[in-house]
Design goal:
Elements: E1 10-13, H1 17-28, E2 33-36, H2 42-59, E3 71-73, H3 77-81, E4 86-89, H4 95-108, E5 114-117, H5 124-127, E6 137-142, E7 151-156, H6 162-174, E8 178-181, H7 191-207, H8 213-230, H9 233-240, H10 245-252, H11 257-263, H12 271-284, H13 290-309
Parallel strand pairs: 1-2, 1-4, 2-3, 4-5, 5-6, 7-8
Antiparallel strand pairs: 6-7
The chain binds nicotinamide-adenine-dinucleotide (NAD).
The site of nicotinamide-adenine-dinucleotide has 21 residues, from helix 1 and strand 6.
Length: 310
């Protein structure tokens, strides 16, 4: 548990999938968390959501005995942000909604509050367009679920100050996360662009009949996934070059990659192909419910995270 006074209390705006997960993690770290959402069933949803996340937090080593003690459900948005040091927003992924929301939140927030959006695609420069002080706003994009996956991409807008970036990094580090500050704005940030590039070829290989979805998943989790959980692509290829490192790798194998790049597929996602993919994936994983598969995934990911931390 590592609650830092300078980041306490925290306000969560939008308590859906991402907001609830952030709330559970912030609470587990000892922060006071005010949570705001327009949902009529807010209180029940948040309490049940946090209850479902609790076992995972416990396995990660958090003491979850008094998890809900510092949780405040605040339906009034202006009250929710007053006095908050960090505002983590997780509302709908819609430009107009987010622009108006930030314009409004800024009126009630303290001068030193930092605004972080979980947005997975909208740049901070666009979200903060109607703010008077956009220097205190940036993207803090988690990978789902935020209470479990270490990465947070911090992405500055054109006006974001260095102070905001550094404080945001310090804040996420206080939660045991692995925040990375991107040097400039780009659609999809880094992790989702990588995911999109790889998934494009996954779909291509399946639609071309080279491999079925289940075998493709096995190819990834028993090779690239395992390798990349330990070391990212650059370090992996630095090691792939033997004693000569990355230079030898590039001269030997790397320089042939462009030939393969030219052959990568650009599958068409029309209705027929989408239908085909859905049928194949459902067939591959029939017999196990989504909640059974999710809990298996969580267990495996926790084991990997704990192993890497040891
Ligand atoms: N789901 C993911 O995998 C994922 C991953 C990373 C980032 N994100 C980003 O996180 C954000 C939230 O995504 P989500 O998947 O949690 O969506 P969600 O639909 O589960 O949650 C959105 C919540 O916002 C609430 N809301 C709507 N209007 C509001 C208002 N005026 N004030 C307060 N709350 C309001 C809704 O009631 C809902 O509970 C999005 O920006 C998304 O891009 C999502």
């Amino acid at each position: 548990m590592s609650c830092h006074k300078q980041f306490n209390p925290i306000t969560i705006i939008g308590a859906g999938v991402i907001g609830t997960s952030w709330a559970a993690l912030f609470l587990a770290n000892g922060y006071e968390v005010r949570i705001n959402d327009i949902s009529k069933t807010l209180e029940d949803d948040v309490i049940n959501g946090i209850k479902n996340i609790e076992p995972t937090l416990k396995t990660l080593g958090y003491d979850t005995k008094d998890l809900g003690k510092k949780l405040i459900i605040e339906k009034n948005q202006s009250e929710a942000v007053k006095g908050a040091k960090i505002i983590q927003e997780n509302g709908p992924e819609n430009i107009e909604f987010k622009q108006n929301l930030y314009q409004n939140l800024e009126k009630y927030a303290d001068e030193d509050a930092i605004f972080l959006t979980s947005s997975s695609s909208i740049p901070a420069s666009i979200i903060s367009e109607k703010m008077n002080n956009p220097e205190r706003m940036c993207v803090g994009h988690p990978f789902n679920p935020p209470h479990l996956i270490p990465l947070v991409e911090i992405v500055p807008g054109k006006a974001t100050s260095e102070i905001t970036l550094n404080k945001s990094k310090e804040f996420y580090e206080s939660l045991g996360k692995s925040p990375i500050i991107l040097k400039k704005e780009i659609n999809g940030f880094v992790a989702n662009r990588l995911q999109a590039a790889i998934f494009q070829e996954c779909i291509n290989l399946v639609l071309e009949g080279v491999v079925n979805p289940k075998d493709l998943d096995t190819v990834v989790d028993s090779s690239l996934g395992l390798r990349w959980a330990a070391d990212g692509p650059f370090l992996s290829f630095h090691l792939g070059g033997g004693n000569g490192g990355f230079e030898d790798f590039m001269n030997h194998l790397g320089k042939n990659m462009p030939d393969l790049w030219k052959q990568l597929g650009h599958p068409e996602l029309n209705e027929d192909n989408i239908e085909k993919l859905i049928t194949m994936v459902n067939k591959a994983y029939k017999g196990l419910s989504i909640s059974e598969l999710s809990s298996q995934r969580d267990k495996k990911q926790i084991n990997i995270i704990n192993a890497l931390n040891n």
